[in-house]
Amino acid sequence: MKIKKAEAVCFTVNFIAAKLFVSAPGAFINIGKNAAWIAVLLNAAAAYLSFLFIHWLHKRNKKRELFSFLPPFFKKAFGVLVSLYLIISAGMGLALLIRGVIRTFMPETPSFIISLLFLTATLYAAKKGLLANVRLSVLAFPLLMIIPFVALALAPHIELTNLFPILGDGDFFLRSLFGFNFFADFFVFYLLIPYFENEDDVFRTGSITIGISTVLCLLVVASSTLTIPYQANFVSHFYQMLTFMAGSNSVINIIKVFKLVFLINFFLYISGAAAAAGHTLGKTFDLKYPESTVFIISLLIIMTEEISYKTLTGPEAYERFMSLGFIVFPLIAALSYLFGRRGKNEKNTGSGSGSFNAL
To answer: Residue 16: what pLDDT?
Structure first.
């Protein structure tokens, strides 16, 4: 089965944008203060350079998977590493979701009830497979347009004086790159490359994906810095601001839509992470039915969520974990190509049996 460019863009943007509703605004504001918008641009520039580098390696490798030259043991190790990263990031993200936003929407609902609801929905969607989740994301993608609408609703409360000092405390450039990376989940885009109808579209599609994600992030962060000062916590700043302005029916209606969009987007994030982890394990170990791993993966996500819910006192651990992923995966991609054993594994390339068929 093949996918279209628009489907790859919708899935990846939905996957990345989940952090906009939880930790991303606070992370950027903690890093850059008034200059949070500059931190977003630096983050995007680093992500784009990483994408250009991996795309270059992909072309040099004659469009074969970059990790096909690794010895079998390291292929499997990397496949397990990717799957664990997806499981842990989804679990920690769900913990932040439950602690902050959902408990704000439904304060009387026990957290384990919410976890079970997400587990049930995720099992159903993830069992359909990665490509089914990709196509489902196309239907949900237009809902992200709530972000420009909310930014427009916040426009009357903008104070341009909040832009200054324009460079914040001036000590945020390195932290913008290594303190948190909004684009850490972009690597799921590479999972989709083998399914492109035309592999020549990879560069343009990846560029569009990073561009749209950057614009959405800029809208959220700018609204958070130019309006009422945002205290970084578990609760979406958009939601806080909308409730603050809830004096008209139009704003109340936007709040209702926002809640729905938020839950759908995060559901797609969790189910997409589970499906991607199952897909990666299936390719890594040549499983005939990779969907059989989804139940165990979903349980691991919920276990990670429960542990994170009880231990996390703020989003900082999640932010550091995302930054680690952004650094590690391009590095492994480079090492696997530059130092892999090309000759010994050349015959495996044609069979497509690798831990990371994405590349």
So the answer is: 92
Nearest Cα residue to 86 out of 304, 334, 333, 237: 304
Provide the 10 A C-beta neighbour count for residue 95. Answer: 26
Which residues make Cβ contacts (< 8 Å) with residue 53, sequence separation at least 6? 330, 334
Helices in 227-248 by DSSP H: which ranges? 237-244
Q: Is the dihedral of CA 217, 151, 262, 358 positive or negative?
A: negative
Q: Are 283 and 141 in contact (CB under 8 A)?
A: no
Residue of 145, 118, 156 lying closest to 257 (CA atoms): 145
- CB under 8 Å, gap of 24 or more: what pairs does 334-337 form? 334/53, 334/54, 334/57, 336/66, 336/67, 336/69, 336/70, 336/74, 336/78, 337/57, 337/60, 337/61, 337/66, 337/69
Nearest one of 237, 215, 191 to 67, comparing CA atoms: 191
- The structure tokens 């000062």 sit at 229
Q: Residue 237: which residues within 8 A CB-CB, separation 6 or more?
A: 25, 26, 220, 223, 224, 230
pLDDT beyond 50 at 343: no
pLDDT in tens, 204-224: 999 999 999 999 999 988 887
pTM for the predicted model, two decimal places: 0.85
CB 281 within 8 A of CB 79: yes
What digits encode the pLDDT tens for the residues 250-308? 666 777 777 778 788 888 898 899 989 988 888 888 888 877 888 888 889 888 888 88
Region of residue 246 (phi > 0: left; psi between -120 and 50: alpha; otherwise: beta): beta
Give the number of residues written for the chain.
359
